[in-house]
Amino acid sequence: MSTTSTTDDTAGGPGIPRAFVSDPSIRVHGDTLADGRELIYFDDADTTLGTERKADARALDPRPATASMRQDPLTGEWVSIAAARQNRVFLPPAELDPLAPASATNPSEIPDIYDVAVFENRSPSFGPLLEDDNAPRGGDDLTRIELGRTRTSVGRCEVVCFSPASTGSFGSLNRSRARTVIEAWAQRTDALSHKPGIAQVFPFENRGVEIGVTLHHPHGQIYSYPYVTPRTTRLLESIESYGPTLFADILEREQNDERVILRGEHWTAYVPFAARWPIEVHMLPHRHVPDFAGTTLEERDELAGLYLRLLRGIDALYDTPTPYIAAWHQAPVNVGRDDIRLMLQITSPRRAADKLKYLAGSEAAMGAWIGDVPPEQSAQRLRDAVAKADQENPV
């Protein structure tokens, strides 16, 4: 077991000591792609791969200019204008999968075979400060509201490849591989939280063309923002109004309710009391943990199994795979860390086998949601689906 403790004063607030415990059975080794982007391999605890990896032999153009962001003066929110994303690959055939290990006919983003690989996005919404001097100037700079304000979208966007296979999702992984991905989330959260200018780190998975994915390859992403996101800002306001025990009280209430789906020694998954989506599940750790970097090895081990069971249950609701967004909400780097707890939020617009919920006027324009399915009914269906998946495809 290895432990590192560091302090960072560069991300918009006072430095906070953090201790990250890595799993020594999961090997981590880094490399650099042809245009200078970082590539990191995470090898399963039971890997059959060696330690050597081929170098990236491509001749790549220099990295494009980092996107810029504009402030909406009506809300104070920042909108990243990332025009380079228009050119990204859209649902390519398997033989041209850009996340598959490179071959003679497919010079992909990953030069060699891997278990789990993480690399900097080639067309990021938030990226490095290259030659631009219009960087954000701290938290006060980004919260001040003026007209016509722009800043460079400084941050980091990483792609997390769950497997070298060209199809699948997190739920299709075996338990060992799921554990490796969770280790990657923890390690990258720790590393990204210590980069200058990063205010919040967000791991997530988009699954299904209905959600808008552009690649069938099993993968997720990690966004590192230069500001605290609007959703988290609203959460901080709720904690200020309710008190610092908000998450602990929610967990205690939910654990005693009929909406619980799965409960382990360290984690509980449930349909929230005021669920917005036809399928919506939250999962919380039983103790206060602000982000993945703060989890123990035992918590990560249990999560690998519970998370697989939950996702396979969601897929067992219907005869075809369920589209979803799996969002891991984490505390910002330098604010709210004693109050905001790491939380999974899975949402799906699927309200029937052949029907999707679309955000109409009330939700899209006013943020006033109307739920289609009673949360208690949804929880019962999910419990039944998890039981079915446990029997047909045990973890």
TrEMBL record:
Keyword Transferase belongs to the record: yes
Gene3D superfamilies listed in its UniProt record: HIT-like
GO cellular component, one term: cytoplasm
EC number: 2.7.7.12
Pathway entry: Carbohydrate metabolism; galactose metabolism
Residue ranges of domain Galactose-1-phosphate uridyl transferase C-terminal in the record: 243-383
Region (Disordered) location: 1-23
Low complexity bias: start-end ranges: 1-10
Keywords tagged on the record: Carbohydrate metabolism, Galactose metabolism, Metal-binding, Nucleotidyltransferase, Transferase, Zinc
One term of GO molecular function: zinc ion binding
Pfam hit, one: GalP_UDP_transf
Active site (UniProt): H219 (tele-ump-histidine intermediate)
Family that this chain belongs to: Belongs to the galactose-1-phosphate uridylyltransferase type 1 family.
Name of the protein described by the UniProt record: Galactose-1-phosphate uridylyltransferase
Record organism: Okibacterium fritillariae
